[in-house]
């Protein structure tokens, strides 16, 4: 057995060595793809790519002049491309082009934004540009502050964010899109900050976020619950920024367009390849595992005594599928995704490889809790940019009336919706790419996605509605409601009927009055007792939310409140300690 384990570890190490060799090739291919476009199609990202390659500079400078002499817009999303161009210039642009860039930081007043990712982009750009022009007074800046003042303000904010993230978790946690908006500015600071402390903490934060992603990556698909995702990637799990970084950092999945360009800017800043242990965590699915995480909500401006609420995540990962959830409730506004089953596919492009249910909540309680605008136009203000928010058939968003518990690959979601609530029904997403599907007389629904068997038990009557683009929506217009889901791999059951018989043999009791309540024995032998509004019990023990770890599983460990992450894999132990701002790595002694 020890010999077999040694051979397996050797194989993993060998494959990681090949991935390491390919990282620079993937990075250069991405940059070349974005640089080698016609001059007329250039934009900030392709200008930056040409500067990195040191080619096509006359056309790049001409386009840069056109952009800066036109109507500048984009706020912090203008700031970060301009910062990259300034640092990638390295004497290639003319003095007059540099003067035009410098003047733009005086004449254009970018909005700081209203989210965590906005602020990190804004303050990173301010930090680096103030560092580049250290003697500039307030007359040279849009905000009237000197470079010294801007640098210090940015430094304080960045360091406070690092402390908050490493002790309480990210507010915009595990986002399929915004992961890129964090890795990008951190790569800038790691590459271009002159202060050794700032450079070191940025490099460590890149590892922190990469490890957080790696442990919840299924062949490049970011499984989850997510603080934020979008209407397309919530069903087509591959189509987004997280897939860009899975391909670039881990060599997983397939090469992407890329989405949003964030991976390009990471590459342009010479963003580091994750250390071998993180790459191994991302790719090793040889054994199933449960992984726990504790995050925080974003800032809550109303209705709460505490600025941040707690988020308790559970993920069960196998080589073929993953089940992941949070505890339910509104943890983020508008784009929260609370739970799902996601299965692996060979080619994920165009495939809806997931299943989940939700209450399509839309209301001012959510919006006023997390946004500062007045209630008179709140829904309309959100709808302008998030057009499905106020839609009864949406597939994205949290609800104050949804509570969730998970044990390994079984998950239960309960709903108790007050009368008069907008959209008083449950939506269940059933993919166009399910390969087998049976509605059983028992009330269970059995289906297969990839090599994954899924059993879905709706707790109230329902009808089916078609989804534009394929698939079906389970529609259940009952206020007291629920979903019980059990997943399993094809390695365990040879066919759907064998899986069906095994699930039907599992004890299940539920009631909906006076509030939803379920008792369910899972395929793994766990007894889940869950009543809406009460702490769930597994095998008779209430879940220990007070002792929930920041990271808890075989690969990542961290205690909530402590700025320290311990990574382990194959005898290697790597520790990120933000208290001492140190990184250490050791290897266990081999046993004969």
What would you say about this model in short?
Helix content is 34%, strand content 22%. By secondary structure, the chain is an alpha+beta fold.
How would you sum up this structure, described in words?
- With 592 residues, the protein is of the alpha+beta class.
- Among the domains are: 314-505, no CATH class; 557-587, no CATH class.
- 34% of the residues lie in helices and 22% in strands.
- It is built from 15 helices and 26 strands.
- A 13-stranded antiparallel sheet has the order 14-15-10-7-6-5-4-3-22-23-24-25-26.
- A hairpin with a 5-residue loop joins strand 14 (463-466) and strand 15 (472-476).
- It starts with a helix and ends in a 5-residue tail after the last strand.
- Residues 1-14 have low confidence and may be disordered.
**Biggest sheet architecture:** 13 strands, antiparallel
Structural class: alpha+beta
- In total, the number of strands is 26
First-residue to last-residue Cα separation: 12 Å
If helices are DSSP runs of H or I spanning 4 or more residues, what is the number of helices?
A: 15
List the uncertain runs: 1-14
Based on CA atoms alone, the radius of gyration comes out at 25 Å
Widest sheet: strand ordering? 14-15-10-7-6-5-4-3-22-23-24-25-26
